[in-house]
Amino acid sequence: MELLKRPRRLRSSEAMRRMVRETRMDKSSLVYPIFAIDGKNIKDEIPSMPGQYRYSVDQLPYALEELQEAGVNNVLMFGIPEHKDEVGSQAFAEDGIVQRALREMKKNFPDMIAIADVCMCEYTSHGHCGILCGHDVDNDKTLEYLSQIALSQVRAGADVVAPSDMMDGRVLAIRNKLDENGFKNTPVLSYAVKFASSFYGPFRDAADSAPSFGDRKAYQMDFHNPREAMKEALSDVDEGADMLIVKPAMAYLDLVRSVSQATDIPIATYSVSGEYAMVKAAARNGWIDEEKIIGEMAVGAYRAGAGIYITYYAKELARMMDQGMIG
Ligand code: PBG
């Protein structure tokens, strides 16, 4: 056989495969989503996300310590308030759950990066991501609230704010609000390309944030639209976003690729609650190998162009990277 090209030559040993590897990962790029809940002494497992918990503020330091020991330095903080109302007042209250959680985190772990999710659905009685006008979310009115939420989170210590509501113009509104209040150097990580997805189901159980009527299709994107994804990404860049998220991850890696090629800012992708729940469920049934599957999903995300990976499996992935199983 006269074959000039034999790709198998470079696959002949583990050492050879490692040398020629094209995708390399680093645990400094992992972000772990965490849920803070009102109350005391609570570490409450989320039924549809086994292994994930809602923590009261006094319990948070234990969880953060574990992350730090694993080498995961970045956290995406969500708050679940005891009281919800029409305008989500707890989202921007000075002593709101997420503000207290952020203060606690930055007091004990000043070097960890605290990213605050900016949205209203965990805080509103109707579960929509903004201020209602009849059955619709009023875009421009919601912007005033979102920018107030972002400001209160930054005042509480957030290093980065991450708007996930999908209102038009929120990045600019938040940027202006932060700048006016002396926070010119706080970056905005925009959930620029966020689809109306059933993969968020378990999160909504965790945050008790499913909309009480209708759905989120009038603000989150239609998942048939890759060109619209580009429009969202580019307009957020124009509004001053410092980093972008494509979400969910696994079923949307085509967009991770195209958005990372079309922009020049860091791109994150978020492997959401439904992805986690599916892997957990199959693994618990013994149908898949959990570690190998999460390793492949992570490599897939980075290979597509993500520089930052937001995942409930951050701790496990960090360990796998340490052990040289991936990366
Ligand atoms: C808040 C928000 C959601 C998620 C992140 N921020 C829920 C939603 O949009 O319904 C989903 C995260 C996940 O599923 O892991 N708007």
Short summary:
By secondary structure, this protein is α/β, with parallel strands linked by helices. It has helices at residues 14-20, 60-70, 97-108, 139-155, 170-180, 201-207, 226-238, 253-262, 273-284, 290-304, 314-322; strands at residues 30-37, 43-46, 49-56, 74-80, 113-118, 132-133, 136-137, 160-163, 189-194, 243-247, 267-271, 308-311. α8 (253-262) links the parallel β10 and β11 (267-271).
Please state roughly what percent of the residues sit in beta strands, choosing from under 5%, 5-15%, 15-25%, 25-35%, 35-45% or over 45%. 15-25%
Question: What are the bound molecules?
Answer: ligand PBG
Average predicted local confidence, pLDDT: 97
Domains, number? 1
Radius of gyration: 20 Å
In the CATH hierarchy, what is the architecture at level 2? Answer: Alpha-Beta Barrel
CATH class: Alpha Beta
Number of helices: 11
Largest sheet: 10 strands, mixed
- The secondary structure category is alpha/beta
Report the uncertain regions.
Answer: none
- Termini separation (Å)? 35 Å
SSE run = HEEEHEHEEEHEHEHHEHEHHEH
Q: What would you give as the CATH superfamily?
A: Aldolase class I
The backbone outline, from C-alpha atoms, is globular
How many β-strands, per DSSP? 12
- Which percent range fits the helix content? 25-40%
What fold name stands as the CATH topology? TIM Barrel
